[in-house]
Each structure stands twice: as C-alpha cells, then as structure tokens.
C-alpha cells in the first residue's frame, strides 16, 4: 500500500468580521452598532416588518441564531438552526413591501439576499410574511412562489 503525500489545503476564504463600526450588513447607511446591533442585543425592537427583515438578514451575516429564533413566529419556528459556516452574506435588495408599518399588524417584504458559498456567488429570493406577536414584529413564513 503506497502512502499518498498530504497536500497542503488552502483555507476557505473568511469573510471579514462585522464590528460595531462596520457598515451594517442590511445595507442601510449606518454602522452596525447604530442599525441592527441594538435589535440583536435586545436593546430595541424593529419598528416595521422591513426593519425586522433587514435585522434578520444581518443576523444571518453575523451568525446570530438566537436572534433569528427569537424573531420567528412560534407556530413556524424550528427547534434550532445550523448556519453554514462557509456561506457569507454579501448584500440585500429589498424589492417591495406591503403593510408592515407601525400602524399595521401584518406585512410582507419581498427581497433578494446575496451570498457566496465555497467561492460561488448566488442569491436567495423570498417574499416573506410578518405579523405582530405581543406588539413585536416576527417572521411568519415565506409566501409560495408564483
């Protein structure tokens, strides 16, 4: 039996860490500390369905599964989340929204979330439903594609 030489492995590219001073991953023109971090840290709640959706995107970008689960409606929330460590979220496009303001109890947000996985760029499209639960916006589910 011949021994094969171990070839050195190239490490997977690492996305730069999001720091408090970094631009917020959600795409708003604010630093992370002033935009989505207060939601993630429980110091504030998202005032609209769109802000909740943006903060959830940022939670994927920073790996905050606790926030994702806390902001998921109890009837559709999974018991846990395992995020793909090689997936790096690279941008968010809000394509449209209905309802979801401070005066509504329901709303939708249509978006495209961009990411790279193992060096391959891709995106995820979703038209999400949000509802207010005990005065807080939560993610309910994705509407079926037309």
Most strands sheet: 4 strands, antiparallel
Look at the helices and sheets and give the structural class.
Answer: alpha+beta
Global morphology: globular
Low-confidence stretches: 1-14
User: Count of DSSP helices?
Assistant: 3
Report on this model:
By secondary structure, the protein is an alpha+beta fold. Helices cover 16% and strands 32% of the residues. The chain has helices at 37-40, 49-62, 65-70, and strands spanning 87-99, 106-117, 120-133, 136-142. Strands 1-2-3-4 form a 4-stranded antiparallel beta sheet, covered by helices on one side. The longest helix is centred in the middle third of the chain and has 14 residues, at 49-62.
Tags for this model:
alpha+beta; 4 strands; 16% helix; 32% strand
Topology:
Blueprint: H1 37-40, H2 49-62, H3 65-70, E1 87-99, E2 106-117, E3 120-133, E4 136-142
Antiparallel strand pairs: 1-2, 2-3, 3-4
How would you sum up this structure in a few lines?
The model is unreliable at 1-14 (pLDDT under 50).
């Amino acid at each position: 039996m011949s021994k094969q030489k171990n070839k050195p492995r190239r490490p997977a590219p690492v996305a730069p860490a999001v720091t408090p001073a970094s631009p917020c991953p959600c795409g708003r023109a604010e630093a992370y500390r002033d935009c989505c971090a207060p939601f993630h840290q429980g110091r504030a709640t998202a005032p609209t369905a769109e802000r909740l959706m943006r903060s959830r995107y940022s939670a994927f970008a920073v790996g905050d599964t606790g926030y994702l689960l806390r902001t998921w409606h109890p009837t559709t929330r999974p018991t846990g989340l395992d995020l793909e460590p090689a997936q790096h979220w690279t941008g968010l496009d809000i394509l449209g929204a209905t309802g979801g303001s401070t005066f509504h109890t329901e709303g939708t947000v249509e978006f495209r979330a961009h990411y790279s996985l193992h060096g391959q760029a891709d995106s995820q499209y979703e038209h999400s439903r949000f509802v207010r639960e005990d005065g807080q916006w939560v993610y309910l589910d994705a509407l079926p594609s037309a």
